[in-house]
Design a protein that fits this description.
- This is AzlD domain-containing protein.
- With about 110 residues, the chain is mainly alpha-helical.
- The protein has a domain of about 30 residues.
- Helices cover about 75% and strands about 5% of the residues.
- It has a two-stranded antiparallel sheet with strand order 1-2.
- Strand 1 and strand 2 form a beta hairpin.
- The chain is extended and about 60 Å long.
- The relative contact order is 0.06.
Length: about 110
């Protein structure tokens, strides 16, 4: 391979461009001070989007294109909510959901 292989050079420029497209706006915006109301709503946005996404995963059937109550999803979701209310740990909640879904899906007939 040549020292300046055109493919590697192109990949390097693409990686640099991708990095700059993300780093420069972040560096510029990090110096701004937001209004307290905007700051509050931005802090709530992540939880709201994640909650909506999880709700769709739990209660939406792509094949039927309608809300459906799946027993395995619902039991795992209840376990996650209970553990999160009990301990308040996101990591423990994720691990509980993964384990509960695996156990319930293995126990229920297909």
């Amino acid at each position: 391979m040549d020292a300046l292989d055109p493919l590697m050079l192109a990949l390097g420029f693409m990686a640099l461009g991708t990095f700059l497209l993300r780093a420069v706006p972040l560096a510029l915006v990090s110096r701004l001070t937001l209004a307290p109301s905007v700051d509050f709503w931005l802090r709530c946005a992540a939880e709201a989007v994640l909650s909506a996404f999880i709700t769709l995963l739990l209660f939406w059937d792509d094949n039927a294109r309608m809300p459906v109550l799946h027993l395995d999803h619902s039991l795992a979701g209840v376990a996650v909510v209970l553990v999160h209310l009990w301990r308040g740990s996101v990591l423990l909640s994720v691990l509980t959901g993964t384990l509960a879904y695996g156990l319930v899906a293995a126990a229920l007939p297909a």
